[in-house]
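Sample intake sheet
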Amino acid sequence: MTEISPVLPWKTKIALSALSALTDFSRRDDGTINRRLLSFFDFRASPSSTPIKGVKTSDVTVDPSRNLWFRLFEPTQVPGGDEKLPVIVFFHGGVPAIVVSVNYRLSPEHRYPAQYEDGFDVLNYLDSHPPANADLSMCFLAGDSAGANIAHHVTVRACETTTFQEVKVVGLVAIQPFFGGEERTESEIRLDGSPLVSMRGTDWLWKAFLPEGADRDHEAANVSGIERGRELSEMEFPATMVVVGGFDPLQDWQRRYCKWLERSGKEVRLVEYGNTIHAFYVFPELPEASLLFAEVKSFVEQHKKTAPPKPITHPSSSLLSVSLLPSI
């Protein structure tokens, strides 16, 4: 009998069971979601101008009409004194950097391409409103799960634009990216019923996110598809780190993504954790969670040094990070 989950601590098992039940109950057959039910478990900490473990936080509004904002994480002590830090833009799903966590619109209330537009507009905002001590020429986009999907598509748009004056994306961190297609891959079939990810659940999520009438081979989902995937070979696409888990049903799509980037002549670092489930990184008791953050730190440190030199007027680098499931 095929194992669909590794041996996990009891604490992790209980949390996974509760989270899986919550997401299953929140999805309705008519394609809508019970946002009120989810809100009971949406615990958000307030920003703090008083540093906590050396980091202060603040919320910055980009567009109040669509509730587009991000939380800014700024270290209060910079290693080396005046050392310039990268910027990491994270799309929700231990690096010396300024981190921007994006609150983008969610589906099914807001379908494709709203999330990609929000992510790109945050980059536009940062380009004209650089955070203090940020060097936007060392900008990394990062995301986990569907947030990694957003990070990829925002990176493509950033590579295509000619309007940025400060922002230069030098790296992409895609943690278990949420890709798919009409085909049922070997890992999806073998691991169907794994915690948090099942074919029934992912089908629902894609239907809630993609344009009406689109199938899963839409370029938003099947990014490396020969017929509908976007050509990257002529694009100045940045170095990319892709994280894959051995018990993640989406791993075949993630490996195809790596091979597509390689065929396109792009630098790829594949990081595999053979004994991990989808979203393992949210469980600090799992040893791979700390290993992952060490890998991300190493990737950022390596590629911020290779960023093209430019006059620095804002002394720190940035990370834009995004993590999302399309409908949560």
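Comment: Residues 311-317, 320-328 have pLDDT under 50 and may be disordered. Residues 287-304 form the longest helix (18 residues).
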